[in-house]
Write a structure and sequence with these properties.
alpha+beta, 5 helices, 6-stranded antiparallel sheet, 8 strands, Chemotaxis protein chec
């Protein structure tokens, strides 16, 4: 599975194209689709993005729910109906769909933020505010993360 780490800021050109960071492109190599899957975050003014491998895992999780339940419909609609397959061009760029850019407030710059198996795309100013608030919430709640035993696939 792909793992995305780091934060990268790239310029969005007049045609709405933006370069996906090289380390993210490397993490996506060998996938069934040469590009990214992107959809509006329902928790933040950002774009959620991942490789096809993670979308397949999401599909398996949604498939475990009752097919005609309201929860299944809500999650399937939120994730799959709004998703865009964004192919990488020869220069490693994607074409940013207008509705995604508008949701995230992205105009001339986009910040790519690694979050493990997924990444997000933010308007840089909004990202700075989000990071500050997230750090403060983590600090005030004393959040910790237990480390699983093992080598993490090594």
């Amino acid at each position: 599975m792909s793992v995305f780490i780091g934060t990268f800021e790239n310029k969005v050109d007049r045609k709405g194209r933006v370069s996906v960071p090289a380390t993210f492109r490397s993490a996506l190599q060998g996938q069934a689709f040469h590009g990214i899957i992107a959809f509006r975050s329902y928790r933040a003014p950002a774009i959620e993005a991942c490789g096809m491998d993670f979308m397949l895992r999401l599909n398996e999780s949604v498939s475990d729910m009752d097919l005609f339940s309201e929860a299944h419909d809500d999650l399937a609609t939120t994730i799959f109906a709004d998703s865009h397959q964004l192919a990488l061009d020869g220069d490693g760029r994607i074409m940013m769909p207008a509705e995604l850019a508008e949701h995230a407030g992205i105009t001339d710059k986009a910040a790519f933020v690694g979050k493990g198996p997924i990444f997000q795309i933010w308007e840089p100013g909004r990202l700075d505010e989000h990071k500050t608030a997230a750090r403060e919430r983590a600090r005030s709640q004393g959040l910790t993360l237990p480390l699983r035993p093992g080598g993490g696939g090594q």
